[in-house]
Amino acid sequence: MSVRSAGAARSRARAPGALLAGLTLLVAVLGTGLAAASGGCGGGSAPAVSAHPFGTPPEAAPGVHAWAAGEIGTLLVTADGGATWKRQKFFLSERGVDVSFTDVREGWLVTDAGTVLVTSDGGADWHVVSKAHLQVKGLAATDARHAWIVGSTVGVGGGPGSAVVLATADGGGTWARTGFGDAELAGVAFADARHGVLIALDRIWTTSDGGRRWKPRRQVGLTVLTGVCAGDAQHAWVAGWATKDGAPLVFATQNGGVSWRRLTVDVPEQPPGALQTRQIVAGGASRLWITCPAGVLASDDAGSTWTLQKVAAGQPQAIAAADERHLVATTTGQPILATADGGATWPAWGQNGLLGQPLVSVAAVAAPAQQ
Predict the structure, then answer these.
(1) How is 71-136 classified by DSSP, letter by letter?
(2) Are 338 and 320 contacting, i.e. CB atoms less than 8 angstroms apart?
(3) Which stretches of the chain score pLDDT less than 70?
(4) How many CB atoms lie within 10 A of CB 149?
(5) 39 and 120 inside one domain
(6) Per-residue pLDDT tens over the stretch 12-36
(7) Which domain holds residue 24?
(8) What is the pTM assigned to this prediction?
(9) Chain Cα centroid distance, residue 292
């Protein structure tokens, strides 16, 4: 999208003596008024509004779809890998807090009021399937029938109550509820309809039966766990940061969550807090990306080594991978980031003032290749 402000109108007159001075003054006054009307200030020509304030935008990648949640009543959507975005309404006066798509048509959305919506046409139409009555922390889905929501009940005075995981196997028609007491749940990820990982700020659980039973696997002190992703039934990763110094932490399992080992994240030193992790996503069997204020931490060997990828603008927040090369990331401000080279470059799209609220979740999928 481009925005241009018209320049101030200018004119010239030729007249002798006082008439010339009067006409000159009149033109100056009119020029000032037109500049103000078209966005100018200070009586001069209006400064041009850049069509791309965050630099050269991403190149189009047709068939790479993404949906970003965070605004009230609307999503931001792209069908070209983040080169262009448009708004897609879900017609509720509620803010989307998490979104998940399992293919280009089937998707799930949950709002800050606990409303659960589904779509079967890529988001052209959204339908309410239930009301969770939770302060939602996360959403995961593996297909049109299976989804999980984590959050907490509303306690006395509107604060958080007890932790809860909701699970459906019939597209949201019915939900099974599992309580987790005073745990501060932070996220959930499923590799398939049976194998999932659940995190709280300092704990990890796994399930192999779709969430009917959750087994506690690891408790980690002096940490804040912030994100989780599942590669397959055996491989999963959890991201967080140390409360002592804000250093990034990554834990990995290769046996379905039975055991977890801490990975070393060795990247150049950054200012305090700049490497505090936010969200983690996997692409393929071995590629990982984690958002943090300094950029995107990336690994192409399942977490054995890491690099810090710089971004064109903003501080990355939510992230999603359509495949090993195409990813989309939101930021804490206006820019929306995208890459078509696995993160070697992260150009940005957006306009200052376009978003009323930060986009806190994003889902991405690649359309099947045309035969």
Answers:
(1) SBSEEEEESSTTSS-EEEE---SSBEEEEEESSSS-EEEEETT-EEEEESSTTSS-EEEEE--SEE
(2) no
(3) 1-50, 370-371
(4) 27
(5) no
(6) 333 334 433 443 433 333 333 323 3
(7) 1-49
(8) 0.86
(9) 12
